[in-house]
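Schema walk-through. Below, the input block comes first and the output block second. Nothing else is stored per chain. Lengths vary across the set, and this one has 153 residues.
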Amino acid sequence: MSTLDSFVQTSKPPPEIISTSQEIRDRGSIFIANVFRANSEDEARKAVTHIRNVIHGQKRATHEMSAWRCMVLKPGKTGLAGEDDFEVRQGNEDDGEKYGSGRVLKIMQAEGVIDAVVVVSRWYANKCSLLAARVLTTTRIITLGMGVKCWAP
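--- output ---
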């Protein structure tokens, strides 16, 4: 049986998941973290939208908390003058889960993760946003070429 996805054609590929954590269950809630590459806030938001509407489209998560960090060129700079031409832009969205994404962002900062967005999805139950940060500690960090750190299984 075909789905609508098999008929939809786009010129851009969907955001690609770099890594997915193991499922964590706690007090009736299920948590899963997904990591995408993101070179801008716009790419980070597209990844969150993709996971919310496509990957979890059939079984929506109660919350999709996200945090991102991206190295971007400063306005008016060319990038040829060295590292002073760049800045880290970062942000997070709780999606109704109080403080969850802020904890994820703090872990990303502490580990030096750049050019990535982490989306922690939660299904069901009571608030335990500390666990959202613990999901990420189960995922190790690897260093990719050019010294860029990103999440990996």
